[in-house]
Structure formats: C-alpha cells, structure tokens
Design brief:
By secondary structure, the chain is an alpha+beta fold. It has 12 helices and 17 strands. A 6-stranded antiparallel β-sheet has the order 1-15-16-17-13-12, covered by helices on one side. Strands 3-2-10-9-8 form a 5-stranded antiparallel β-sheet, with helices on both faces. A hairpin with a 5-residue loop joins strand 6 and strand 7. Helix 3 crosses helix 6 and helix 6 packs across helix 7.
C-alpha cells in the first residue's frame, strides 16, 4: 500500500504564507459586498463588469447578465476562434486569404479590401484588432469555415463551452441583425480567453498604420481603442458602436501583477464610454491586487525516491498559481505538502504529491506537485556498485 508522508513546508514558504492575502475563492463574496455599496461606478452605462483576469473573479457588476446588442465587441469571439485556428495549426498569419465579393461588400468599419484579391491572414487580423474591419472578419470567417453561417455556428458553440449563457451570435461582425445579443459578463469572459494569446497584444498596441493592398493602394487605419494611449497600463480591447448598442468598450489593463478586464455598454458618447471604463479600472487597481503564490519554474523542495539511481528528486508545482483579493482583506493561510511514497522509475512531470492551502479548516486549493527530472530504477549492477562503495 502506498503510504503518504505529511510535513509542513520549509520556513521560507511558511513566512511567505503568513503575509498571503486570501485567494480568489475567498474574494467572490467579499467583492460583491463592496460593489453593491459603490454607486459611483458605471453610472452612465447600461451594463458593466469589472473582472480579474487570472481568476475570473468579478469585483463589480451592473446589469451584468442583461441581454443587449454589443456591436463590434462580437469580434472578440471572432478573433478568439481565429487565434485558436492558428494555435491548432489550421491557419497561419502567412496564409493567403482570397477576399470574396461578399466580404468586400461589408459596410461599417472596414479596411476597404479588394474583392477576388489575396491578402495575408496576419494583415487581416491586424486590421480587425486595430480598426474593427468588418470585411476582414468576413474574409477570414469564410476561409476558415467556407461560409459565415458555419463560422457563426462555431462562435455559438464556443460561447456554450465558455458558459456564456446570455449570448447569441448571428454574424461575425456585430453589424445590426435580429436576435444578436450578449451581456457584460459574457463579453468579459470571452475577452479573458482572447487575451491569453500573446499575438493579440502584438497587434493591439498599434496606434496608426498604413494598410498595404496588393495593388499598391494604402488605407490608413487608426486604433479605435483610445485608452491604449489615454490610460496607464491599458494594452488592448475592443470598441463597438451601433444605434442599437450605443457606445461599448471591453478593455484590459495591467499594473504590476494585476490584470483587469473592464466592460461598459450602452453609453451615449465615446468620451463617456472611455471615462466609465477608466473609472472601473481605477476602482479595481485601487482596491484589489494579484500576487503570485507559487512559480512552476522554481523547485519547491527535494524528496526521497526508493530504488532510484538518483535518491533525491526535485519537485515543483504543476503550474503558476496566483491569488487575487481586496487589499484590506488579509488572511493567514496555512500550507502543507503531502508527498507520495514513490519508487523508481519516475518520469519527468509525474505527479508525486500535492501542496494544500487552507485557512482554518477550509481547504482553498490543492496544487499538484510534479517531478522535475526522470529517475531510472537501479539495476542489479547499480546495487552491487553501491554495496562495493559502502564496503
């Protein structure tokens, strides 16, 4: 039978834990109480949400699940699916995308693409992120799925996977159409998933550029998200406007280790939209913080391995782990390592135990601990050599 050996973490980790602020599991209820009494936020917005990126914790919400048209914020899902195609190897930024007559005919914000002309996928993606180009959205949707309708089916399937219960997509652009809607919480959710792709930020920071058409023509495109210059730490987002949706904005900003997502919908003017989103960020950064608890790149300690060619095994957490909480909400968190009684052979990244975090009797999280190296089992010759050395 495998026995489990329990012991407290090293003194350094214990000292670290004394200063730890409570995890996201704690902050959910506390954050709601704070936001309920703060009436200065998102006064002009039809709906709003402020979310922590790392944990998905919502620290402020106003009508956050009410269904409204969201205009070009629909493109957040369009971009998310495009980046997933790149990640899966089904699309490359160097792929040639032939623009159909349908794509080139899109109204609203556009890159003014030439029909029956090939553009690099990367250039089309850039025009969507910077200038909200509807024609580029349709061209990529048709390339990926054959038709826009099929791409929209993919969008709604992804929304379901992300538990976006108050969202229905009817196109990939956000242009006005019956029965197309989402909510502030769902918008924050899909932006949270989009910004996990570093390539998004590569394009999102572009302020102004000349879009080069294959025939030599250029179209000057400007970033629609003015907060990337106007708000410290803002490095991406997606704007939207239609008469039905009014002015909308979903943006992200990072200060220190804290990254927040702010969504405001249904504003009468773009300046008011930017003000409300900035105000939400100010509230979030002023009252909350994210700290890294453990790092997957730093060995936690060593453990004994039976019958191994190497007797000591370095272990570390499976992933980086962060916690997010109100700055005033301090909790003492106890930590404990539980290791399995392991016998070689051991494979690298094999789970060999867990790190338990708790406050009082409540367990906050159990973090898998993994082996950092392979350890082979001692052979008969290895055992003989050991005996000779000890003789």
């Amino acid at each position: 039978m495998i026995k489990k050996v329990k012991f407290v973490l090293t003194a350094i980790l214990a000292i670290l834990m004394i200063a730890v602020i409570s995890s996201a599991i704690f902050i959910n209820s506390f954050a709601a109480k704070v936001s309920e009494v703060d009436t200065s936020l998102a006064k002009s917005a039809r709906a709003a949400t402020l979310m922590d990126f790392d944990t998905g914790t919502i620290v402020f919400e106003k009508n956050s699940t009410d269904r409204y048209p969201i205009a070009s914020m629909v493109k957040i899902m369009t971009l998310l699916l495009i980046f997933e195609q790149i990640e899966n190897g089904d699309l490359s930024i160097n792929h040639d995308i032939v623009v159909s007559e349908n794509a080139a005919s899109m109204g609203g914000s556009q890159a003014f693409l030439d029909a029956n002309t090939a553009y690099k996928a990367g250039e089309l993606i850039k025009s969507i992120i910077v200038a909200s180009a509807n024609d580029s959205c349709v061209a990529l949707a048709e390339h990926i799925c054959g038709t826009v309708d099929s791409f929209v089916e993919m969008m709604n399937k992804k929304a379901s996977e992300l538990s976006m219960q108050n969202t229905n997509f009817v196109n990939c652009t956000g242009l006005p159409a019956p029965n197309g809607y989402s909510c502030a919480k769902d918008v924050a959710t899909m932006l949270r998933n989009l910004i996990k792709f570093d390539m998004f930020f590569y394009y999102a920071k572009v302020w102004l550029y000349d879009f080069q058409h294959p025939n030599g023509r250029t179209t000057t495109l400007t970033n629609t998200n003015k907060l990337i210059k106007a708000y410290k730490g803002c490095d991406g987002g997606k704007t939207g406007f239609t008469q039905e949706a009014q002015y909308c904005l979903a943006a992200t900003a990072k200060r220190g280790d804290t990254r927040l997502i702010s969504v405001a919908m249904g504003l009468k003017e773009p300046k008011v939209r930017n003000f409300e989103v900035s105000n939400l960020f100010n509230y979030g950064f002023g009252n909350y913080e994210t700290r890294q608890f453990v790092c997957k790149d730093i060995p936690l300690q060593e453990m004994q391995v039976k019958r191994g060619k190497t007797e000591l095994l370095q272990i570390a957490p499976l992933n980086d782990y962060f916690y997010f909480s109100a700055k005033t909400n301090k909790q003492k968190i106890e930590s404990q390592v539980v290791l399995e009684d392991v016998t070689a052979p051991i494979e690298k990244r094999q789970v060999v135990g867990k790190l338990i975090l708790k406050t009082g009797e409540q367990v906050l999280i159990e973090i898998p601990l993994i082996a950092l190296i392979d350890i082979d089992e001692k052979s008969y010759i290895d055992f003989l050599n050991s005996v000779v050395k000890e003789w």
